[in-house]
Amino acid sequence: MSVFNTIWSFIAENYILYVIFFSGVLLISGLVSWLISKFFLVFLVRRLFFATHKQEVPLEKDVRIAGKLANMVPVVAVYTLNQFIPNLPLHMVDSINTICGILFIVYLANLINEILEIINLSWVRKTRKKNHSIKGYIQVGKIGVHVIAVILVLATMSNKSPVIILSSLGAVAAVLMLVFQHTLISLVANIQVSTSDVLQLGDWIEMPGSDISGEVIDIALHTITVRNWDNTISRIPTKNFITEAYTNWQAMFASGGRRIKRSFYIDQLSISFATPALMQSLERLPLLHQMVEETLPADKPASPDESWFIEQGITNVGLFRQYIARWLGKRGDIRGDMYLVVRPLAPTAQGLPVEVYCFTSSTLWIDYEASQAEIFEYIYAISHYFQLNIYQQPTGSDFRRFTGPPSA
Asked: Could you tell me which residue ranges the Mechanosensitive ion channel MscS domain spans (predicted)?
């Protein structure tokens, strides 16, 4: 004990050693408090914040929050201990207090930003089915936290009130508006996109002007990220979604029907009035003949002649069109409660376009393409039973038939 008193007396009598000793005490106290908080704050955070749903919150969140708090504990410990050490140089005390104040503000801002990030991740995990994103608002909150932290740091360093710092910033408000103009524009665009509910995570969008077609995977403050169907990633400025045209296909998925709107061309030279010979040829296919008979007038004679078809205005293309409409209505992969039309369009140099307009019962791309392929393959194959020719431009084989075999 006497040795300790002797050492203490020697330190107390030597002012430089006194200052060095207590500077070391402050550093050691900060280190010890940091180590203690690093080990025990995870348990404390879990007990205080996540006790009601321990199984739902991964341990990573505890570690992240505890890590930010552990950085603040030694700052508070050094600042508090510094107030109780006598006879330290006044400028040293003020410097330590200023440094502790600045570090506390920085670590507190980091803690708040970490909490905001955890809120964002939790929101995405819990509301994934609703597909709403709050990432833009979280980023705005982080910017606000950083701005407030900078103002408080400047106030601490200058030992002035934050109100004075804010009033002095009024002179550079125009410069700040110029610097943050893109952020402000993006904020307004993000609010409009989020509140109007026109764009959500998981939506399929197309922007023809930017050659973008894919799924929205992230909605941030400045950009919206889209994974294109070729697995490339595109980032579009948020403001573009209120200034440029784009198509959101999500309503199509919600409706449960995907539209087929496609035409095939009939050679106009093959169009004619229906004849008894045509009806007799259709009798070889009972189901087809029955569906065609159902489209004819109810007062049809037992054995109509060619003049009857002319008087009634019944053509082979008309029978073909009505038959395709009935055939589509009986398919299980076509929605019967939505529009189903088979209609001729204005003639073109390629022939008479006949448009098929209907909706598939599956909105999946593979199912949709399979149904569309089956429908048009059937149309091309069945058309000759109605004495119709599908138009295609002349090819080399067509010209060879005209010229005959080459001369020896």
From this structure: 186-250
